[in-house]
Known about the structure:
Elements: E1 4-10, E2 16-23, H1 28-42, E3 48-52, H2 58-61, E4 67-71, H3 86-97, H4 100-103, H5 110-132
Parallel strand pairs: 3-4
Antiparallel strand pairs: 1-2
Amino acid sequence: MRGRKRHIMADTAGRPLVLRSHSAGIQNRDGAVTTLKVSRKRFPFIEKVFAVSGYAGERVAKTTCITPEIIRKPKGQIGFAVQPRRWVVERTFAWLNRNCRLAKNFERTVASAEAFLSVASVMLLVRRLGCSA
């Protein structure tokens, strides 16, 4: 299957902490497992993450000691509404996708896709530092 899925873990300000990419043929729950495992090694102090319903499931919940809180759409909601905490990651994806290389899936390998995610993240953080100086 062509294409990539991206999983990111961001802090509350939207700064990327963990960036993962994999084949589009892999379920979100399976991608979440690897993302949580990587995040545990780099950030052992994280205890809770906010996630969308695609990450709901026992396998994700039992991967690490990180507790996933699933952000669900309120009952009776019609149309679009901003969900609490979900917008942080969506905004980060939007910032990263402003990089032309990430606008489409040009990369042939997962390694190069993750490398360009990291490069785009660094560019994003450097821009933020330049604006605050």
